[in-house]
Amino acid sequence: MPSTGSTREEVDARWQDAGSGEHYVHDRWRGQRARERDPRLIQRLLRAMPTDTGIESILDVPCGTGRLGGVLDAPLVVQSDISLSMLLNVPPAASHGNLLQSSATSLPFASGSFDLVVCCRLLHHLRESSDRQAVLKEIVRVSRRYIIASYWDAASYGAWRRRTSSPLRRRKRPDVRQAVSLEVLRAELDEAGARLVTRAHSFRFVSQQTFLLAEK
């Protein structure tokens, strides 16, 4: 099981632990509803784009073990993750044939290389705004136009429960993940050079997990 961490460096190290890929692919997404939730929300945002958008290239970062491979459809799809363990556990059916080990804050691509950049389940692991902005600025940089990213919404029952849980429970089960408000998120996107277009919620006002569509 990966260790906890809240700084960008700690999060990077967490998912590079030996066995993190096997845990992620075999234990993290065992239920069908859980496996389908993120792809369904991403499909909703893809449908929100103009019909003449013409997405020819997509970067999925961090791609993990390729969970989104089935919904990201373009002539060129690059799947990148800092964890070699994750990449080694991408099933052939989920791979687009372009697997790359790299950090979301230091991508080896020229500016505007991809029509769409997808960043799923990373931002909520970063407590500091500076760390989230480092990721956002880099994925906005390599995007030609669109960004889809997930984050935890502070205006949700799940976030409220975490904020109001007892100190004893927090000590027993420390959780360094971070929910942010829409205002904070919008400001961080603006700073990165993108504007928020729309959002897609798993369970509005209940679940923290939320996806955004942004445009440069």
From TrEMBL:
Transmembrane segments: none annotated. Residues 59-144 form the Methyltransferase type domain. Signal peptide: none annotated. One of its GO terms (molecular function) is S-adenosylmethionine-dependent methyltransferase activity. InterPro entries: Methyltransf_11, SAM-dependent_MTases_sf. It comes from the Bacteria. Pfam families: Methyltransf_11. This is Methyltransferase type 11 domain-containing protein.
